[in-house]
Amino acid sequence: MTSGNRSEAVDVQKSYEVRTYGCQMNVHDSERLSGLLEDAGYVRAPEGSDGDADVVVFNTCAVRENADNKLYGNLGRLAPMKTKRPGMQIAVGGCLAQKDRDTIVRRAPWVDVVFGTHNIGKLPVLLERARVQEEAQVEIAESLEAFPSTLPTRRESAYAAWVSISVGCNNTCTFCIVPALRGKEKDRRTGDILAEIEALVAEGVSEITLLGQNVNAYGSDIGDREAFSKLLRACGTIEGLERVRFTSPHPRDFTDDVIAAMAETPNVMPQLHMPMQSGSDTILKAMRRSYRQERFLGIIEKVRAAMPDAAISTDIIVGFPGETEEDFEQTMHAVREARFANAFTFQYSKRPGTPAADMEGQIPKEVVQERYMRLSALQEEISWEENKKQVGRTLDVMVAEGEGRKDGATHRLSGRAPDNRLVHFTKPSQDVRPGDVVTVEISYAAPHHLLAEGTPLGVRRTRSGDAWEKRNAAPAARPAGVMLGLPGIGAPAPLPVAATPGCGCD
After folding, report:
1. Which backbone phi and psi does 425 adopt, to 5 degrees?
2. What is the pLDDT of residues 173-202, one digit of tens each?
3. pLDDT in tens, 437-490
4. For 193-198, which contacts have Cβ atoms below 8 Å and span 24 or more sequence positions?
5. Which residue has the higher pLDDT, 351 or 166?
6. Of residues 272, 227, 223, 222, the one with CA closest to residue 250
7. Burial of 144 (C-beta count, 10 Å sphere; 0-12/13-18/19+)
8. Residue among 197, 284, 247, 188 nearest 23 (CA)
9. Are 164 and 148 contacting, i.e. CB atoms less than 8 angstroms apart?
10. Residue with more model confidence, 27 or 241
11. How far apart are CA 207 and CA 244, in angstroms?
12. Cα torsion at 111, 175, 253, 339 (round to 10°)?
């Protein structure tokens, strides 16, 4: 058969594995990569395959200094496996692929495909081309070819879904390489976003998270500064959509109309992840962040005035170049004032290709570590105090899948409260599924979770639970096989067809 023959298929089930590193955008992209591969006839390898698949895809991140070491270490472990398995293919995509391009094939010549952040839809074609031509295929698009949400998808959850509203970023933070790798911000049409959400809800999804590198800047590409708040309000009109979240916003673009939309739209959850990065005005200026401590704390104050029960989390970088003890104390002060429910704290790591990597005043590792430990201890204390305020409250918890590692041993279930706090609760007498909602009373608080030890007060079986049950009860469909010729791929018809904190750059 020739590569032009699209009608014949191998009667063999070729398997795939996708390994994801990085932020929610990468997680969302990996769902698309899985969907593309399954659309081309591949089947997902069993959990724990550890490289024992016909195609292994690395969806990479480039924000940490050692990102490339991690990738090449994993690629090195796969090299002998590939030698023993004729026909096995390895692909590398994502931010590191966009940055390093030909370097990957030079350092790991057994890699078959390298693709970038803008052309994930080409993966099956590139795999087939590498197989036919018997040489590595490197294809890095410089601009977005198709919005990710127009591609096939294999969602990990039956009840919750990411919905990308924009890609790229217009900010120039000195510690962040994302704009160079994902490009300038490009917004989706509001109608396309709402059509995707409606299609997801029709499939049983009841919770969506609006996703963007700088999510609340949505509208800058179309010239409407209130586009994001209008989008939140429009989500409130979609019947069957119970929970709306978004990540990650930037303080610069967090305007009063967004706060009002959050407070006045019932299905927008009382939760906000707002990256602060530093509490020092000096360091914020060096980071090229367009706000200062007073502005940031003012936003937090307004959010709490509008939504007293809102849980607010943040990202903080410790040890940015030039950070003095006084600068660090300003961060500690801001954390005490903001009283975050949770904070994702990072020790500054050089991101190759960023201005900060070449700045003077790089902080010794031992100093960064000591400050990091002090900050972590303070935030742990605040998180615990804030969680203790939840004791005695009655909460509607959406049952989650895989959130409670000890659920089997403790005979409990786990899920998320409206403000996204993790809740472990006593298993009800009646059967419940992920996506169902259980009403509980909080009896105990730990720094990172809540506990409801009493008998649940109520159970509401939902369409999302039905969708989860249907997905898990359905026998696995036998795929048609992988085309020996070039598979017929490309962006599907328009909709309806059909996120750990971010990378710390929002």
Report:
1. -140, 160
2. 999 877 777 778 889 999 999 999 999 999
3. 999 999 999 999 999 999 999 999 999 999 999 988 855 444 333 333 333 333
4. 193/163, 193/165, 193/231, 194/231, 194/234, 194/235, 194/238, 195/495, 195/496, 196/149, 196/163, 196/495, 196/496, 196/498, 197/163, 197/235, 197/238, 197/241, 198/238, 198/496
5. 166
6. 272
7. middle
8. 247
9. yes
10. 241
11. 6
12. 110
Q: Which two tokens stand for residue 483?
A: 């085309």
> How crowded is the C-beta side of 64, counted as CA atoms within 13 Å?
15
Q: What is the pLDDT of residue 148?
A: 65
Residue 405 has pLDDT above 70, yes or no: yes
How confident is the model at residue 474, as a pLDDT? 58
Q: CA torsion 270→216→164→113, rounded to 10°?
A: -130
* Closest C-alpha to 59, from 16, 26, 98: 26
Q: Is 143 helix (H, G, I), strand (E, B) or coil?
A: coil
Contact at 8 Å (CB) between 59 and 30? yes
| Residue owning tokens 């019932």 | 266
DSSP state string for 233-247: HHHTTSTT--EEEEE
Distance (Å, whole) CA 201 – CA 223: 29
Q: Are 281 and 327 in contact (CB under 8 A)?
A: no
Q: For the whole model, what pTM was predicted?
A: 0.81
Which CA distances in Å does 146 have to 21, 210, 217? 22, 18, 20
- The answer on whether 235 is annotated among ligand-binding residues is no
Residue 221: alpha-carbon gap to chain centroid: 22
* Residue 505 assigned to a binding site: no
